[in-house]
Amino acid sequence: MVDGGGRWGRRTLLRRSALLLGGAALGSAATLEGTRVADRRLPLAGGPASATLGNRRQDVGSGGVQVVWGVRTDTPLVALTFDDGPRPQWTPMVLDTLAEHRVPATFFLVGERARRHAALVRGRMGGHEVGNHSWAHHDLARMDATKAHDDLSRSHDAITAATGVAPRLLRPPWGHLGGSVLHAAARLDYRLVLWTLQMVEGEFPHDPAGHARRIVADVRPGTILLGHDVGDERRLVALRGLPDMIAGLRARGYTFVTVSDLLRRAAVPGAAR
C-alpha cells in the first residue's frame, strides 16, 4: 500500500523486493538450464567447435599446428599472397605481372577451381608456392571435424594434380578458424596462414596508383599481404596497380618472398627481433 504521502509502506516494499529477487533467481536458473539443454544437443566431440574427437585416438600428423599472421623481423621482407583462384578471369594476368617483375608469390587455391582450370596453373607455379583454400570456398569452421578433413583432403589432391606440387599451407576461407579446422590442419600437417595486411580495393575506386601507395605505406617487415585473383570488378584496382605496388616496395628496400621462405628466413638466428 501507499501512505498518504505517496510512499510505499515498509512491509509492502520488502514483500515486493523479495518477489522481484525470487523471480530474477528463477529466471536465471531457467536461462542456465536452457543453455545446458542446448549445449547437450551440440555435436561437441568432433563438431565444429571441438579440436578433438572426444575419447577417440587423435591421429594428428606431427601432433601440432602452427598459426601465423606474419613474422617479426628487422629484415625488409614481404610475402605477397593471392586467394580464391584459379580462374581465367584474372589469374593469368596476375601470373604475367609477377613473371614480368620476377616476383614470387603464394597462391591459396580452391581445389574445385584448380581441377576445373588446371591448364591455367600447370607449368606456371615455378618460383611460386601453392596453398590449400578449401574445396569449394565453403566455411570450414561450420563443418564437423570429419567433413573439414575430407574437404581439405579432396582439395589437396586436386591442387597437387593441377600444379604438380603438394600444398603444405592452409588458409581457411575468410580466415575462419574453428576447432574442426585446427584438427583437420593438424591431421594434414599443414601450417595455418592468415595475413597481416589486406588489400583495400573498395577504398580506392578507379585509382590503382592510390591503392598501391596506400599498401606500400602500410607494409612492415614480415608482412603477409592478402590479395585476390578472383572476384568482382573492384578488385581490379589492386591488380592493375600491382606493378606500382611492386616498384614502391622495392624502392623501400623490400624483397618479395613466398610465405614459407618468409618463415624460414625469420627463423634464422639474428633475423627475428
TrEMBL record:
This enzyme's EC code(s): 3.-.-.-
NodB homology domain ranges (all copies): 76-257
Enzyme class, first EC level, given as a word: hydrolase
Gene3D superfamilies: Glycoside hydrolase/deacetylase (3.20.20.370)
Keywords (A to Z) from UniProt: Hydrolase
A UniProt-annotated Pfam family: Polysacc_deac_1
InterPro entries: Glyco_hydro/deAcase_b/a-brl, NODB_dom, Polysacc_deacetylase_ArnD, TAT_signal
CDD domains in UniProt: CE4_NodB_like_6s_7s
Molecular function GO terms recorded: hydrolase activity
Name of the protein described by the UniProt record: Polysaccharide deacetylase family protein
Annotated source species: Micromonospora maritima
Taxonomic lineage of the native organism: Bacteria, Bacillati, Actinomycetota, Actinomycetes, Micromonosporales
